[in-house]
Write a structure and sequence with these properties.
Layout (H helix, E strand, L loop, with lengths): L2 H11 L4 E6 L5 E4 L2 E2 L5 H4 L5 H23 L7 H23 L3 H8 L3 H9 L2 H5 L1 H12 L3
Antiparallel strand pairs: 1-2, 2-3
């Protein structure tokens, strides 16, 4: 999948570019494409944003998630070429959604990736609070991983 398609997939999974502040499924104030509103941003975003601002925030958050994905996968060594794209897409989207600190709690998932045990990686994705909180998105990412089996 090219980067533009991946970005659009994340935007779709996040529900689009939302211009007014809203509480996400966990009760956190959010705006744009799943952008968690920091305390320092509350005043700036209280009346909403433009679509262009929403996209700018998304691109910043996407670049952070991309860096976080690379950090997460670094200990896994070289993922085989045939699997690298899918593994990176899945981990990037997980990093975008939950952030690196929570992604780093997927210790058994990371080990399964390092072991190239794609079935176990999928099992570890399913055996998580993340799966229970956002099952549709999780299943979509698990379906991507199933292409490696």
């Amino acid at each position: 999948m090219n980067e533009g398609d991946l970005q659009q997939e994340i935007i779709d999974h996040e529900g689009g570019v939302i211009l007014k502040p809203y509480k996400d499924h966990l009760g956190y104030w959010t705006i744009g494409v799943g952008h968690l509103i920091k305390d320092s941003e509350k005043h700036k975003f209280k009346d909403g944003i433009t679509y262009e601002t929403g996209l700018k925030l998304f691109l910043i958050d996407y670049s952070i998630a991309k860096r976080d994905m690379q950090t997460f996968l670094k200990p896994c060594g070289d993922i085989p070429e045939y699997a690298r794209g899918i593994v990176e897409e899945v981990c990037l989207e997980m990093a975008f959604q939950i952030g690196l600190p929570k992604l780093n709690k997927f210790v058994k998932f990371k080990q399964a990736l390092a072991d190239e045990n794609w079935s176990e990686a999928i099992e570890q994705m399913k055996d998580s609070r993340w799966y229970n909180q956002t099952p549709n998105r999780a299943r979509s990412l698990m379906d991507k991983m199933k292409k490696l089996i």
